[in-house]
Write a structure and sequence with these properties.
alpha+beta, 65% helix, elongated
Amino acid sequence: MTTQAAKFEEEIPIYGPVKQKSVFCIITLIVGVLLLLIHALFASILGEPSVPVIGLLGLMLALRALELLWLRSRGQRLTEREARIESYVSIAFMFVLTALLTHFTNRDENPYFVLLAVPILQCAYMFGLLLTIVTIAAADTMILFWIWHFYALHPPARPTEYLEIGMLCVVYMLMGLLVWFLVNQLKTNQSRLKNSLDLLQATRERLISEEKLAAVGRLASGVAHEIRNPVAMISSSLATATYPGTEESEREEMFAIAARESKRLESLTADFLTYARPSPLRLSPVLMNDQLSYIAAVTRAYAASRGITIVSELEDALPVEIDAPQMEGALLNLVLNAVDAAPSGGTVTLNASLADNILSIDVEDSGPAIPEADLNQIFEPFFTTKPSGTGLGLAIARSAAIAHGGDLHLSQNRDGCVTFSMKLSRSTVNKD
């Protein structure tokens, strides 16, 4: 058995938590009260309960009540030593109490033999098969000895009484063994469940680790892919420009290509660093509607060249406290992505609202829905469906939202309405 499984077994069923032990105390209290009532109601048959019988039952009720209070004071668990001592003392007490009640009642038909069921059940629940068999044997021996002793003092013996006592002994044996079997099965199933949970947790951690490695691999692959193309263009352009016999015009063209690809490589590297290592927030009070209006203004010319209309639906003022340059870059990425996704003649709508100190910014385009197969990857760096895209726009925008205590998610995705929503936490909002 593994260390974790052994610990689990120790914590749950072997020594019994406080709740289970409290149940046995309550059962004993109920049985004691019922036996006293039965003895009083059937006094014509059993005889009036004597002072010692009433005193013993009262002592049992008082001790069990005190034990119940002690268990409650222990909280939710007992130590192994406390649990074993409590069980042994409780079982021994019930045997002694039953023997004394039987002696003072002094009848062959003794109702107090039912008290022996409690230690049998307790032993079957708390301990192993051997101790359960010993407890059953002790209970049956006590019952049979009392009948033999009673008829030795009060002959003649009644055969039917021996038959009834024998049946009671068989019932106690079957009850104890059955309860032990069921409890043992429960413990075995719990142990198996614990092992399964341990295996599931280990599998989950391994899958998370593998997913992280896979994400790093995809990131590295994307970086290599995006850098390889401009580097290859720069290398081939410089090689052509320096080749003997290359005309001056062609050489200048190759140098221009190398310069343009170098600038693209620099821009790609800057975007990657922005995503991978965002700068610390420099919060300042900003009117969000002014920033969104600026984003709409700077992207309107680009949108118009593609036949797209930029629409702004903004509330007045919207005072917030954000890192304006970082948020501006995030929103610019969102709007440019929306413009690229919208068809000619379509619209891109900027919507912002402030409710309960939560800032919501929606960027909606009228393009086609994002395919279901791509939804799990749209925020991954270098994932893009655009021929000239780097796949960092949404990743950078979401990183900025998270840095501001919020998040970015795809709130609507259907043909003609694709909406990315950014929600910023209360701590970002300027409450002044």
